[in-house]
Amino acid sequence: ITKAIIVASIHFNTLIFCLIVLLMSLYSPATFAAFPTQIIENEDVQLEQFEMGYFIDKSQTMSFESIKQQEFKLTPNALSLGTEAKTTWSKIALHNTTKSALKIYLHHPYAYHNRAVELYEVVDEQLVNHRVLNMDDRDTQQWMYRGSAVFEITLFPDKQTTLFVKGVAFSHQWFALNLYSEENSKRALLGQYTNIALAVGMILALIIYNFLLFFSSRLREHFYYACYLVAGGFWIALSYGLLADLFNVYGSITLKWHLSLVAMPIFLLLFMINIFETQKKYPIEHWALLSILTLLIVDFIYGLFDIVTALQYSSTLAAIMMAVSLCVTFSMLIRKQPIAPFFLLGHGLFVFFSALAVFFYKGKAEFSYINSHGVGIGILLEALVLSLIVAYRIRILENLKATQADLQVLASTDPLTQLFNRRHFSHAANQLLKQAKLAQQPSSVAIIDIDHFKNINDTYGHASGDESIKHAANMIKGLSRHQDLVARYGGEEFIILMPNTVANDAYKLTERIRIALESATLASNENHLNFTISAGVAEIDSQTFNLKEAINNADKALYKAKDNGRNQSQLASD
After folding, report:
1. Catalytic residue list contains 71
2. In the predicted model, what is the mean pLDDT of the chain?
3. What is the pTM (predicted TM-score) of this model?
């Protein structure tokens, strides 16, 4: 098993290496090629894919005049630069070739996760406009619209305008800049976060369902899974702009909320420990999961004091967590753990898309919807697949409960007659008598015995004897009331507890059973048998509700019935 785990780990590391190579091959580094100018020829402007320049101010203190003199790298208008580019400048050259002034709108759709955005407009080498958007200053947020920064820009006729956009990030620098006419700007803003709202809605439904399962079953796996979904759903809504869209919250106030990204794998690891029962069954895997769990908890606590540094470490910890959790899942698969294939499918999807996102956030993968939203896609896919595990576990528990119920029935039932056995009768009868005592209701008990049963066995054989017992049991059960407790008390002996019944009524019921059996004929092995029963009836003392005493009194009445010639019922004397 250890060898298999090592082999699986090697294969996993090979997979990660291939993935890194693939991502690096997709990543196109910026160059210092000739700086392009975007030609504006009419009023219908919709620039969503174009080339611009960028420059990283590592000192984070350079003035605008100094920035203008720098050489900008050529890049697409959407890019990710990682954690080392907290202050980044973008440069967009525009030329209005029409004979009239045009109004266009610069969109920064991911401005909500920045610390600040500044826009400088330069015409004929002169600064004509400068705007500062500080996410922590409400007075500067007139350019924020539902999470996006939107700047209105006037392009003078037959003039070249250069836009310098300064973005200051909290930790990871990634952004996109788009240019629209007024009509296209409105269209771009409509339904911008519909897909995120749909994903969060699906996760919210799973959260409610699993919390309900936890409250009804008290199984910790449902609680951990629900908490994982809460953290994941909240982070999706926060990181992809839904909270900014709905509640206009952004800036430093939301920074610590990103700890939900650290909380999410914490609950996922707890979920793994619980469903795989690693503490009891797999100590090595349990140690591995606990180790990474400890690191994540330390990072979470550290983030309460220094969130920026904690988030910088979170990407590396996420990669380690993916490696460890996948290795443990492979180990579970090798050990033929029944839910391991489901978990491997769900967690594999999460790891794949999250790996794309990790490389994207670190500036090692190109800007695309899948890369930028990789964690959210992975969370949603994993949540849907892990819901299959929850459903599978519920089915296993239901089957286990059904098996336990069947075993309980077998333990309490007489196999020949399918009536309750003596042991179950004693337990159930005492429960009924407790209720009768509380309600101050009378109860009676009857003991019934097949007359001359030994003669039936000796004359017709034991098979016919068994048939006569089954026949008597069916008749007694069929003629008793639904509230009566009927059981096989011995070989050919039966007992009935009659709740809320006085002795005379119990005697009448017993007589009805006796008369019915006397007139019935049993066909057994080509023989037609007629037999009778004798019965003793006793009312249970209304002061003590002593079942044992009542049974003794009924037994004495039964012997009296036998002594008097059988085929009769007798009431116990006071």
Report:
1. no
2. 87
3. 0.66
